[in-house]
């Protein structure tokens, strides 16, 4: 019930469907069109510049990969949407050179062309990948009017060039895993080396401090004269005199005896007990009783 009630995008995300980023934003400055987008491999936006020589760059549009999906081509290898480049004012049957530049590309990035009218829709364009300063890569592709890269298939002085940059998904995934795996060991090794070095430094400081303490001059021992010997009789007399002296100054306390109060009932009981005892102990009474 939860799966049915959830939105479709959340359900497919739970089962591993690749959710595309927002569509690219295109801006034009002269004869250069720049696409700003967030690819799958990054969380920040990148810029891709398109420029054409041998014709006029009319427009660059984005194309969903679902429109060009074919067996044997994995959409995970394309980190962005496809691009449709429209070129005009090309000499009929002539060629135009398309330049695609970005710092998101690598030296191993390929540009694949899609032509739905061709026998093989997907073809590697064999782009010339040139490295520029600041980690920028420039791919240059020659496109012939009415050739295999022209989607309209007509020799009319116009070229419709469809395709996108391709990078191996598994190569990227394994490379990232390799870097992270060994990066952890590298960081731990650096921390261990730092701890060993700091331990040696502290040991050196402790040894230096111990040497300074041992090198300090010792204080002279106090000159204690031995006590004079005293005879036992004199020592006993001194102790007795001290005891008598301090005993005389000790405050004396008079004991207070508490005389219990005797009630008449107790007094009467005692008198009866004494009378009973006197009868037994009186000799004259015993003689009379014989």
What attributes characterize this protein structure?
single chain; 290 residues; alpha+beta; 2 domains; six-stranded antiparallel sheet; five-stranded antiparallel sheet; 6 helices; 25% strand
Quick overview:
The protein is of the alpha+beta class and 290 residues long.
Topology:
Blueprint: H1 2-5, H2 8-14, E1 25-29, E2 32-37, E3 46-53, E4 56-63, E5 82-88, E6 95-102, E7 110-114, E8 122-124, E9 128-132, E10 136-144, E11 159-166, H3 169-215, H4 232-248, H5 264-281, H6 283-289
Protein model, in words:
The protein folds into two domains: 2-167; 169-210. Helices cover 34% and strands 25% of the residues. The protein contains six helices and eleven strands. It has helices spanning 2-5, 8-14, 169-215, 232-248, 264-281, 283-289; strands at 25-29, 32-37, 46-53, 56-63, 82-88, 95-102, 110-114, 122-124, 128-132, 136-144, 159-166. It has a six-stranded antiparallel sheet with strand order 1-2-3-6-10-9, with no helix packed on it. The protein has a five-stranded antiparallel sheet with strand order 4-5-11-7-8, with no helix packed on it.
Share of helical residues = 25-40%
Largest sheet, in brief, is:
6 strands, antiparallel
What is the tally of beta strands?
11
Total count of helical runs of at least 4 residues: 6
The domain tally reads 2
Biggest sheet strand order reads 1-2-3-6-10-9
Beta-strand percent range: 15-25%
Report Rg. Answer: 55 Å
Give the oligomer, counting copies of the same chain as homo and different chains as hetero: single chain
Low-confidence stretches: 1-20
Q: How does the overall form come out from the CA principal axes?
A: elongated
Q: What is the string of SSEs from the N terminus onward?
A: HHEEEEEEEEEEEHHHH
- Our measurement of the CA-to-CA distance between the termini, rounded to an integer number of angstroms, reads 121 Å
Mean pLDDT: 80
**Estimated structural class:** alpha+beta
